[in-house]
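Teaching assistant's notes for section 4

Start the section by putting this record on the projector. Ask students to predict, before seeing the second block, whether CBS domain-containing protein will look compact or extended. Collect guesses on the board.
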Amino acid sequence: MLRRRTVGDVMTEEVVTLRPDTPFQEVAALLDANDIVAAPVVDDDGVPVGVVSASDVLRHETGMPDPQGKDGDDERAWGKARARTAGALMSSPVFTARADWTIPQAARELRRRHVKQLPVVDDNGLLTGIVTRSDLLDAFIRSDAEIRGEIEQDVLARILGLDNDTVVVDVQEGVVTLRGHVPEPRLGPVVVGLCQGVDGVVAVDAHLAAAPAGLDE
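Reveal the predicted structure now:
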């Protein structure tokens, strides 16, 4: 079957982490020094217990529950504005992902949870990486050459066992055009479906005919 890229393929494995007792000034310095917008907070065993974001830091800096300076009556938000450690500043519970999740699965979780990043954990709940919205977007922003190569090598040759000259593949701005012939009429929709499953493909325009070889629509 066609291998879909997973969270494990795009996540960052070397993660900047915080401890619940990390002082606020150190939190702010680590985010700034590493040019990141958030960092997971882990316990003594390496299990994520929360996430501190740049927005949390801004709440503290403005002394207001909203980073834009708006008043609010949320006691938890006011607590973050007065926080002195990562544990008091962090958002919890933490929502996590697994390395074997597909890219669309992780994207749906980000959207459902209204967050911009997900710590990635293993079977024991230990932190193994972090995946962000930009990581997921990069998975779909692939060059036309990469897409064409995957279709020719994985879809047509490896999965379907078609000869090199059976189907000509052209990719422009993620739109795949297929021209050629397939051994049986039923393979046409199969080829299209597999191509649509390739990461980065925007659409598939198929001009495929069944045998005899060389017949084109």
